[in-house]
Amino acid sequence: MEIREMNFGKSDGFKESSEPNFTELFYEKDGLYSELRNQDKYIILGRKGTGKTILASYYCQKSGENKEISKQLFANDFIQKKLLNFAESEINKEENSLFWEYTFLLDIGNSILDYIAGLKSYSLKRVIFIARNKQQVVRLREIINNEFYKIQQITSDTFQQSELASSIGINGKGGLDFSNKNLVSEKDSIVKRRSKYYETFPELKKLVLDLVEKLKVRITIFYDDMDQFEESMELSSFKSLMKNMIYSADKLNKDLYHLHKSKICLVIREDIIDMLQPEANNLNKQIADCSIRIDWFLSVYDSPQTHPLMKMILHKIKNSGGAFKDSTLNNIYQEIFEPGVFKYLLDRSFGRPRDIVRFLNFYKESFPRDNRITISNLKRVEQGYSKWFYDELLNEIAISNNKSDIKEILTFISKRGYGSFTYQKLFDYILKDTGQQKEGLLEVLSVMRDYGIIGVINSQKKVDFTYRMGLSTRVNQTTKFILHHGLKKYLNI
């Protein structure tokens, strides 16, 4: 079987979930899907690239098979609501929290309407449900159609009208059209005043909860890719937004608890939670009790084919069809992977599926007719992978206050030309190169250690990376550092 016939998966979880045989290719690690079915679990945590989106997508597809209602929403799906309600630099805390609960209720309500519309017109369930709840259904539709899609108000004194006009169009129904970049015509007026979504909140909540109970169907709504909001907001506003999203989900889930196990689920990067913890009351309790953590790395394993990351890849190959359909995972590994390949892949990753999948797809693109993966050919595609790995890292650290400093330090490490160093050697090199002392260097190196960009050589002369061992001991001026192998090719080391 040639490499081109093998499906290693995709680095983009949403794209992988769109594959026609996605459920067959999906590898469920440690029963996470079953755990997520638990009513108490509503937060999926993990580092970027660990498979959070794929797990949520799998849940949604399986829910459809079970005739449940499930939906996976991304930041862009409700960017409109954010612009309408969070454009101001300062927002009342209560209103911030209320916005999220209101958003959740709107999306549940919209899911109910979609579900009813999807039933056959002569379906007994549809006929009976509408006959008994017609007035409520009609009113819910009115609220959803009017609340956010009528341009009555823009909550911003910080936006200039011309700025809004350049990015927001008016559709034919009087609503907002964010795909249209044309200028708003002179006849269209934008009235800037505070949104009054709170005026219909009590009615909306009662309507939605009543209809969820009467529909007798489990409803699960996932909110994914929330870190995208950080790109358009100040960090303090972003933190407030995220904290209130979690608090509001927890509050509403208490109301949904006995309604056919319905719930709001949040898909969140672990580093964002780490950022929120020092400033959030009681957040740790919610995380401890209500979250599922996705972590793939094992420091000790019997053989490569027993490691969850390799088992995931072998599972996908087996279910790609073709020659390996009836083979064991062990036999597939022995036939396809040259000894030492897995360690080579693992050492150049953060111990997450996205890294392994992308490296193998680089290989597939360059050597499609190979039938065996070798270290020598992996080395030939490593330059491209290393560039991708570096870009992924930059995306991940975008929320860090130290992102500019991290990029600068990586540049100096590259110019120096050595992957291992101490604080003093790097400090001296920067001083010699620039003629200036690098203030706060040790603090930046500590942050880089936390992200796994650099590892620490311990007293046993072994390398500790945070994604392998958790946080190691505090760094100091005598600490010996080593650059992550995945970055070396791109940085020419």
Topology, please?
Layout: H1 13-17, H2 22-25, H3 32-36, E1 43-46, H4 52-65, E2 69-74, H5 79-86, H6 93-118, H7 124-147, H8 161-167, E3 169-170, E4 176-177, H9 201-215, E5 219-224, H10 235-256, E6 263-269, H11 270-276, H12 283-290, E7 291-294, H13 308-318, H14 329-336, H15 341-347, H16 353-366, H17 375-396, H18 403-416, E8 420-422, H19 423-434, H20 441-451, E9 454-457, E10 463-464, H21 466-469, E11 480-483, H22 485-488
Parallel strand pairs: 1-6, 1-7, 2-5, 5-6
Antiparallel strand pairs: 3-4, 8-11, 9-10, 9-11
Helix pairs in contact: 6-7, 6-9, 6-10, 7-9, 13-14, 16-17
Task: Trace the largest sheet across and list its strands.
Answer: 2-5-6-1-7
Number of helices: 22
By helix and strand content, what is the structural category?
Answer: alpha/beta
What distance separates the N and C termini? 35 Å
What fraction, in percent, of the residue positions are helical?
40-55%
Q: Which fold name corresponds to the CATH topology of the largest domain?
A: Rossmann fold
Q: Indicate the proportion of strand residues.
A: 5-15%
Rg from Cα = 25 Å
Oligomer: single chain
Beta-strand segment tally: 11
The CATH architecture of the largest domain would be 3-Layer(aba) Sandwich
Shape from CA axes?
A: globular
